Amino acid sequence: MTRNTAGFKTSKRACPACGKVSSYPIRQEACSLPCGIALREQRRKQGEQATSVTISTTFDDAVLDVLKAKKASTVEAIANTLDRGPSAVVAAIERLRGKGFNVSANPGAGVKLEAVQSQPVRKVALVHDTADYEGKWVRFGVCGDKHLGNMHSRLDVMKLLYDLFEAEGITTVYDTGNWIDGEARFNKGELLVHGMDAQIDYWIENHPARKGISTHFVAGDDHEGWYQQRECLEIGRYAMLRAQDAGRHDLKYLGYAEALVELKAAKGSRQMMVNHPGGGSAYAISYKGQKYVEALQGGEKPAIILQGHYHKFNYGYPREVHVVDTATCCDQTLFMRKKQLQAHVGGQIVEFLQAPDGRITRFRIEFLPFYDRGFYESNVRKFGLPSRLKRAA
Questions:
Q1: Cβ distance 142 to 324 under 8 Å?
Q2: Edge-to-edge strands of the sheet including 313-316?
Q3: Of the candidates 209, 191, 187, which has an alpha carbon nearest to the alpha carbon of residue 148?
Q4: Dihedral sign, CA of 72, 77, 83, 88?
C-alpha cells in the first residue's frame, strides 16, 4: 500500500468497471471518474434487483428509526407502524445485525437497541496455538490508547513501533483499546476530525499497515465506546467491517471492553485477557492492576492480562498473574494535565515460554519508550530549553 501525490493511500487492484489492474486510492471504488460513472450506470440497469436492494436499505433505515424512537417494541408493532409484513421486519433486523447494530429480540422483552449486546462474559475470542513452540519463545507486540483523531496522537510513534515489530519478525499485535478519540464535551477542541465515520476512516487511513502483521483490538467502553453507547452500534465490529471494505484485513476485532485469548499448548492451555478497564488512575501505578486481579472470581484468573486505559507502562505479578499496563501512543492531553496524569508513551514486545501442560514457565517484556514531541525537535536541547535560551540560562 502506498500514497499518491494527494496523500491518499492507494492499493493495486482490478477495477470492477474496466477490469484493468492499477493502483488507485482505496477510498475509490473504480480506477477513474469515467469508470465510476460506468459502474453506476451498470448498476442502474440491473433493474429490479437494484430496486430491491434500495428498498431493503430504505426499509432497514425505517426499522432502525422506529427502534431508536422507542425503548422497546415487538416485530408485530414495527410491522404495523411501517405497514409491512412481520417477515420483512425480521429480515431487516437480521440485516441490521449484520451491519453491526446491537438489535436484541427476546420473548417478553420485545425488540430493542442495546448499547452492549448480551453475550457470555468469558467467551474466548481467539485461539492462539502454541503447540509448535515448545522450547521456543512465543512473541507478540502490544500497544494501545492510540486516540487517533486527537491532535496529541503520536502517528510517528505508531509507525516506528510497527517498523520495529516487523524488523523483529512479529506477526501479531494486541491493541488494548481507545484506537480513536471519540467525541465528548471536554475533547472537542482537540479533535482533528469530527463524526463517527470520519474518525473511523481516519483510523483506517493512518493506522500502520505492515505486511504479515495483524492487529487484534478490543473496543474501550470510553472514547470509541461513547459512539456505541449513543448509537447502539457495536463499534469495534463496525470499524472492522468498514476497514475490510477499504481493503484493510489486518485490523481484527476481539470484543467490547475485554476479550480472552486462548494460549494453547500440546496438552493444555492458559488464557490471556486483552482488557480496557475504566475509572480514573490511582496514585500508585501498580494499584489498578492489583485490585483488578484481586476482584476476579475464583477460577477465572487468566495467566496474562494486557491492560490499557491508564496510559501507563507497568509490569506486576499479583496473585500469580502477569499484568502488563500497555502505555499509550498519545502525548498528554489537556484532560490529563488537569488531572495531573502522566503519559507513558510507547509499546511493548512480550515473550513467554509455555510448558506442554499450558503453564507459563518464563515471561519477559521489553518496553519501547518514546518521549514528547519536543524531545525530538532540532531546536530543543537538554532540559527542554530552546538553543536561543541556552546561553542565557
A1: yes
A2: 124-129, 258-264, 269-275, 304-307, 322-326, 313-316
A3: 191
A4: positive
Query: Alpha-carbon distance 44 to 155, whole Å?
Result: 41
Which CATH number among 1.20.1260.10, 3.30.360.10, 3.60.21.10, 3.20.20.70 corresponds to the domain 124-376?
A: 3.60.21.10
Q: Which helix (H) or strand (E) holds 201?
A: helix 196-206
Range list of β-strands (E), the chain: 2-3, 9-14, 21-25, 103-106, 110-113, 124-129, 138-143, 172-175, 214-219, 251-256, 258-264, 269-275, 304-307, 313-316, 322-326, 346-354, 360-369
Q: How far apart are CA 78 and CA 114, in angstroms?
A: 17
Place of cell 465506546: 225
Structural contact between residues 296 and 163, judged by C-beta atoms closer than 8 angstroms: no
Instruction: Provide the CATH topology of domain 48-113.
Output: Arc Repressor Mutant, subunit A (1.10.10)
- State the amino acid at position 244 in one-letter form: Q
Extents of the domains making up the chain: 2-32, 48-113, 124-376
Ranges of residues in the chain with a pLDDT under 70 are 1-8, 27, 46-57, 71-72, 107-109, 117-123, 131-134, 377-393
For residue 321, give the C-alpha cell.
498473574
Same fold? 48-113, 124-376 = no
First to last CA, the chain: 48
C-alpha cell at 110: 420485545
Beta bridge mates, 10? 2, 25
Assigned C-alpha cell, 273: 485477557
Torsion of CA 49, 50, 55, 57, to 10 degrees: 120
